[in-house]
Amino acid sequence: MPTTLSDRNGLVNRQIPEMQLSDGSPSSLTAPPPPAPLHLTPEGRAQHRFAVQGNAIITGGTGTLALAGARALLEHGLTGLALLDRDAESAADAVEGLARDFPAARILVKQVDVTRADEVARAVGEVSGVLGSVDMLVCYAGVVGCVHALDMKPEEWRRTMDINATGAFICAQAVAREMVGQGRGGSIVFISSISAHRVNYPQPQSAYNVSKAALLHLKNCLAAEWARYGIRVNSISPGYMDTILNEGAGLESARKIWAERNPMGRMGVPAELTGPLVLLCSRAGSFVNGADLVVDGGAVVF
Ligand SMILES: NC(=O)c1ccc[n+]([C@@H]2O[C@H](COP(=O)([O-])OP(=O)(O)OC[C@H]3O[C@@H](n4cnc5c(N)ncnc54)[C@H](O)[C@@H]3O)[C@@H](O)[C@H]2O)c1
Ligand SMILES: OC[C@@H](O)C(O)[C@H](O)CO
Fold first, then answer.
1. What percent of the chain stands above pLDDT 90?
2. What predicted TM-score, i.e. pTM, was given to this entire model?
3. What is this model's ipTM?
4. Average pLDDT over every residue of 253-270
5. Does any domain span residue 63?
6. 208 carries an active-site annotation
7. Residue 19: inside a domain, yes or no?
8. Residue 291: closest CA among 207, 222, 211
9. Residue 98 alpha carbon to ligand 2 centre in Å
């Protein structure tokens, strides 16, 4: 069915033709599903341009996207991994799975609140002591709340900013101090969001959106300050991913809208964020600094 559009210039009832693909089929066909995961052999891992060398700290490390990121870094050669999360227990099965699938890697899990600079500094020192170095930091720790700005309590605003933005700064600072001492650089990746680029629809979440926008400029500032130490600082801005964060009462209709408004017609799955992460953490990304990689199926083009 052609769509009818009334526009502001009075050109009413313009018909938007249905786009056709070269084989004559309509473009509104269901988008293809996500691709199957790629599994590298151990030999392939070590020699690949996308090989990941050294040890990583991942914050919010027992969350859904973080565990997918951890698995991808291990698949590409990561030798040591520390998952820092304020809720370190909830993903015991997933962590056991990683340990089983990557028996040569050293995997630590630590209960850490990223808003506590003392806890973070202690954990970074302990991880470096056990693994021998810290070469990568990926900051996934984050919370989201849907609250109308008129109803927002200052405490809710501060908590969101504290975890999502200040927590990332605290972790980046502690890890960068360690990296500067080690003298061989490193890679830091913040997990921002398309919410840093666009106001979400339909849910109101100003504190989250502003906290994620803050991460983007923090990334710019640190990329500028720390490049001289060989530390690259980048970010990834995911679109709507199918995780627990986006499930629950009241979100069914929103999920439908998010998928409908996406050129690819769906939400992403966690593994689809991991390619950009591997790029940023590997030799293949050696000249990528201060960049934000939007990974959203094209959501922000509208
Ligand atoms: N799921 C999405 O669609 C989506 C889209 C864009 C961005 N993101 C971002 O990606 C990140 C991970 O999202 P997810 O979907 O995996 O959510 P998730 O809830 O599974 O993971 C978040 C993790 O952060 C941890 N955390 C929260 N506060 C913490 C604190 N103070 N200290 C330490 N850990 C803390 C939680 O315990 C949890 O394990 C978040 O920053 C989120 O904003 C998610
Ligand atoms: O913008 C997408 C994400 O940051 C997030 O999943 C969403 O905003 C949560 O409501």
1. 79
2. 0.90
3. 0.98
4. 96
5. yes
6. yes
7. no
8. 222
9. 26
Which residue out of 64, 163, 195, 236 has the highest number of ligand 2 atoms within 8 Å of its CB and is therefore the one to mutate? 195
Tokens, residue 302: 């509208």
Which residue in 201, 208, 229, 240 is the catalytic one?
208
Single-letter amino acid code for the residue at 146: C
Look up the CATH number of the domain holding residue 78. Answer: 3.40.50.720
User: How many CA atoms lie less than 13 Å away from 6 in the CB half-sphere?
Assistant: 2
Residue 36 has what pLDDT? 77
* For the chain, the helix, strand and coil percentages under 3-state DSSP, each to the nearest 5: 45, 15, 40
Indicate whether 1 belongs to any domain: no
Give tens-digit pLDDT for 59-103.
999 999 999 999 999 999 999 999 999 999 888 999 999 999 999
Indicate whether 8 belongs to any domain. no
b vs e for 106-118, b when ≥16 Cβ sit within 10 Å of the residue's Cβ?
Answer: bbbbbebbbbebe
Ligand nearest the Cα atom of residue 192 = 1
Plot region of 297 (φ>0 → left; ψ -120 to 50 → alpha; else → beta): left
Range of the domain at 251: 46-296
Pocket test for ligand 1, best of 58, 59, 65, 163 (most atoms within 8 A of CB): 65
Q: Which residue has the tokens 């209709």?
A: 253
- Please state the domain count of the chain: 1
Question: Do the bridges between strand 55-59 and strand 14-16 make them parallel or antiparallel, or are there none, so unpaired?
Answer: unpaired
Alpha helices, DSSP H, located in the chain = 42-47, 64-75, 92-101, 117-131, 154-161, 167-182, 206-226, 252-260, 274-281
Q: Is 259 exposed, middle or buried (0-12, 13-18, 19+ CB in 10 A)?
A: middle
Label residues 122-152 b or e (16+ Cβ within 10 Å = b). ebbeebbeebebbbbbbbbbbbbeebeeeeb
* Tokens 């590409």, residue located: 76
Expressed in angstroms and rounded, the spacing between residue 140 Cα and the centre of ligand 1 is 5
- Return the CA Rg of the chain: 21
Please work out whether the CB of residue 87 comes within 6 Å of at least one atom of ligand 1.
yes
